[in-house]
Design brief:
Blueprint: H1 7-25, H2 33-44, H3 56-76, H4 84-110, H5 117-124, H6 129-138, H7 145-169, H8 176-201, H9 204-213, H10 220-238, H11 243-257, H12 267-290, H13 293-298, H14 300-303, H15 305-318, H16 330-340, H17 345-356, H18 362-397, E1 402-405, E2 408-411
Helix pairs in contact: 1-2, 1-12, 2-12, 3-11, 3-12, 4-5, 4-7, 4-15, 5-7, 5-17, 6-7, 6-18, 7-11, 7-16, 7-17, 8-11, 10-11, 15-18, 16-18, 17-18
């Protein structure tokens, strides 16, 4: 029988503790802990064992966890990467993704899976920046051409997908034009808030007080960040926009005005501890608990949706990586395509909104999220193998550590 009180939350927290431990103890599996958290939620939830349910405590913390996840994504956004040729390639690639996504959405709507082709198009157009960056860092490619291009494309995709989801699918009766006005007004308020925070931060007396309190039990910087996060979320809700937009912009504002961390080097570590140490895992485990896996398995036609969405991710986000072929080798282009097609958190968010607005059934939402799980399980691992394979081939062909890619001479360090 499902538990009440804090027992459900305890089980969710226990899963959040054991998931990364299990991944670390069996490194050959190369499973992201987020996948283990979602799968554990499915297995322990009503769809399989029925040992835990998403009660009020789990639901509330799960919603806050989603906000904190988008907040952390916003914190890591680097607008400086979006410029020049990199920006043009990322922008054209995203437009191609949307066009391909509309085609996929139209087909799925004709099959009766969804009521809105645009919802599927937007859902498939995002890339999980938070999952892609660690893979590039593990491969030592964070500052390489493939790293810069992939991160820029993922950054633009994340921001654009959140904006489109907000404009097109926010609950309320406002027309599309009214939503654009509301969005621009909201962004204006965000910019004014950012300027106000920046100006206030230059007040010497206040800065001294903040410095004195930042590492005490007051944790004043962390409290200020959470107030800004919740304030933007509430403001977005009042404007009739998606709350995830407020969370994303809150992180982006703090990331933009907090470039110099010399006086507070532990600030972001503390935010990550709150988010990834507690709130974000609750969101992923509770997402697994709510997935209608039973309905997906019971209906063979519905079960067939999952591989279709996996292929759709590869087509919608993977094919636009061909735009990088003049900048990257063949292996790197394929790896970039796989990394761009890696998506999960946004699919979870979009499917939740689709179910809430009645544009998507619970079974289709489960298939879409399951496709995201498959993408996280397989695509980064294959991409990492392609990047490392290309590096090994280069070293064999050019043992002095020098290689030529697309006419560009680069120096590599041979370990």
């Amino acid at each position: 029988m499902p538990h009440t009180g804090f027992e459900n939350l305890f089980i969710v927290a226990l899963v959040a503790l054991l998931a990364p431990l299990g991944v670390a103890l069996v490194p050959r599996l190369r499973l992201p802990s987020v996948v283990v958290e979602i799968v554990a939620g499915v297995l322990l939830g009503p769809a399989v064992l029925g040992l835990v349910e998403a009660d009020l405590a789990v639901e509330v913390l799960g919603v806050i966890g989603l906000a904190f996840l988008l907040f952390m994504v916003g914190l890591e956004l680097d607008v400086a990467t979006l410029r020049g040729r990199v920006l043009r390639l990322a922008l054209v690639g995203y437009l191609v993704s949307l066009a391909l996504g509309v085609g996929v959405g139209t087909a799925t709507a004709a099959a009766g899976w969804v009521d809105s082709p645009l919802l599927i198009a937007v859902a498939l157009s995002a890339t999980s920046l938070g999952l892609v960056v660690p893979v590039l860092k593990d491969a030592g490619a964070g500052d390489s051409s493939i790293g810069r291009l992939t991160v820029a494309a993922a950054t633009l995709a994340d921001v654009a997908a959140v904006l489109l989801l907000t404009l097109l699918f926010s609950e309320g009766t406002a027309s599309a034009g009214a939503r654009v006005v509301l969005l621009l007004t909201f962004v204006g308020v965000v910019v004014l808030t950012a300027v106000g925070v920046l100006v206030t931060g230059r007040w010497r007396r206040l800065s001294d007080v903040v410095f004195r309190l930042q590492d005490t039990s007051a944790e004043i910087r962390v409290r200020a960040a959470i107030v800004l996060l919740l304030g933007f979320v509430v403001l977005a809700e009042r404007f009739g926009l998606e709350t995830i937009l407020g969370a994303l912009l809150a992180g982006a504002v703090i990331g933009a005005i907090d470039k110099d961390t010399s006086t507070h080097p532990r600030f972001r570590v503390k935010l990550e501890a709150i988010g990834f140490g507690f709130l974000v895992p609750v969101f992923f485990v509770s997402s697994g608990i709510r997935l209608d896996v039973a309905g997906l398995v019971a209906d063979p036609g519905a079960l067939a949706q999952m591989p279709v969405f996996v292929v759709a991710l590869l087509v919608v986000r993977g094919l636009p990586a061909l735009l990088f072929r003049t900048e990257l080798s063949g292996r790197e282009t394929a790896a970039a395509g796989l990394l761009q097609a890696t998506s999960l958190p946004f699919l979870v968010t979009a499917s939740m909104i689709g179910v809430e607005t009645g544009l998507m059934s619970g079974v289709t939402a489960a298939a879409l999220v399951s496709a995201g799980v498959v993408s996280v399980l397989i695509f980064p691992v294959v991409a990492l193998g392609l990047m490392r394979g290309g590096e090994d081939a280069t070293r064999v062909a050019d043992p002095d550590g020098t290689s030529t890619l697309d006419g560009l001479r680069t120096r590599q360090v041979v370990e």
